[in-house]
Specification:
Elements (H helix, E strand, L loop, with lengths): L5 H19 L6 E5 L5 H9 L4 E4 L2 H10 L5 E4 L16 E5 L2 H13 L4 E7 L15 H9 L4 E8 L7 H20 L6 E3 L6 H6 L4 E4 L1 H4 L5
Parallel strand pairs: 1-2, 1-8, 2-3, 3-4, 4-5, 5-6, 6-7
The structure holds pyridoxal-5'-phosphate (PLP).
C-alpha cells in the first residue's frame, strides 16, 4: 500500500500548523485540504484514514472519476479553474474554491438555483497580479462583493489565493495579509465570509501565521507529483 507514512506526515504538519497559529495570534481553526490531484484514489483513501476529511482537486473530470470510485465520505473541494461548459458538475463539490469570474458566478448561480440548491464558494483573488493565474484583481473586490451579494444561489464563504512560488517571506506576508483584508471586504458587503484559503506546501506556515483557515497541501503530504 502506498502512502504508508501519511499519518506521520499529517502529525508533523498539524504540529507545525499549531505552532504557526500560536505565533500568528489569530486564534483560528485551520483545516487541511489534502490535494490529491495526479495521485490515484488510494491517496484519497489514505487521506481519510489519516484523519483528513477534505480533499482538493483542480480538474473536474479527474475529481468526479475519483469520487465515483472511492467509498470514504471526504468533502470535495474544487481548487482549479472551472470551465463554464462544466458548470453543471458544481453540485458534486462541497466547496468551489476557485470562483474566478463574474460570468462563472452567474453560471453557477443559475445551475444551483435551478436545482433548488445553493453552492458554497470562495472568491479566488490574484493577489500578486500574475498573468499565469486566474482570479479577481484585489482592486475589483469591493464591486465584485456587491455583485455577488445579488446572486442568491451562492454562499460566499471567503477568499482563496495562491502566492507566487518565488516570493520571499516579507512579500508572502504582505500578500497573505492583503487577502485577509479582502475577506473583510466580503464581510462588509454582507457575506458570511469566514474562510481564508491560502498556503501550500512551501508557504503554509506563513499563511497560517497570517490567518489562514484552510491550507491546501499536496507535496508535503503525498510527495512530489510526476506530472
Ligand atoms: C496543486 C495545488 C496545491 C497544492 O500544491 P503543493 O505545493 O503540492 O502543496 C494547492 N492549491 C492549488 C490551487 C493547487 O493547484
Amino acid at each position: 500500500m502506498r502512502f504508508l507514512d501519511l499519518p506521520g506526515r499529517v502529525a508533523e504538519v498539524r504540529g507545525r500548523i499549531e505552532r504557526a497559529v500560536a505565533r500568528g495570534g489569530h486564534g483560528q481553526a485551520v483545516r487541511i485540504v489534502a490535494v490529491t490531484k495526479t495521485f490515484g484514489t488510494e491517496a484519497v483513501t489514505a487521506a481519510w484514514r489519516a484523519g483528513l476529511l477534505d480533499v482538493g482537486e483542480n480538474r473536474i473530470q479527474e475529481a468526479i472519476a475519483k469520487k465515483r470510485e472511492v467509498d470514504v465520505p471526504v468533502r470535495w473541494h474544487l481548487i482549479g479553474h472551472l470551465q463554464r461548459n462544466k458548470v453543471k458538475h458544481v453540485t458534486e463539490f462541497d466547496l468551489i474554491q476557485s470562483l474566478d469570474s463574474l460570468r462563472l458566478a452567474e453560471a453557477i448561480d443559475g445551475v444551483v438555483r435551478n436545482a433548488g440548491r445553493t453552492a458554497d464558494v470562495l472568491v479566488q483573488v490574484n493577489i500578486a497580479g500574475e498573468e499565469t493565474k486566474g482570479g479577481f484583481e484585489p482592486s475589483e473586490m469591493p464591486e465584485v462583493s456587491e455583485q455577488l451579494a445579488a446572486m442568491t444561489g451562492l454562499r460566499v464563504r471567503g477568499v482563496m489565493t495562491m502566492a507566487p512560488f518565488d516570493a520571499d517571506e516579507a512579500r508572502l506576508r504582505h500578500m497573505f495579509a492583503a487577502a485577509r483584508g479582502l475577506r473583510g471586504t466580503l464581510v462588509a458587503a454582507g457575506h458570511a465570509a469566514t474562510e481564508l484559503s491560502m498556503g501550500m506546501s512551501n508557504d503554509y506556515e506563513i499563511a497560517v501565521e497570517e490567518g489562514a483557515t484552510c491550507v491546501r497541501l499536496g507535496t508535503v503530504l503525498f510527495g512530489a507529483r510526476s506530472t
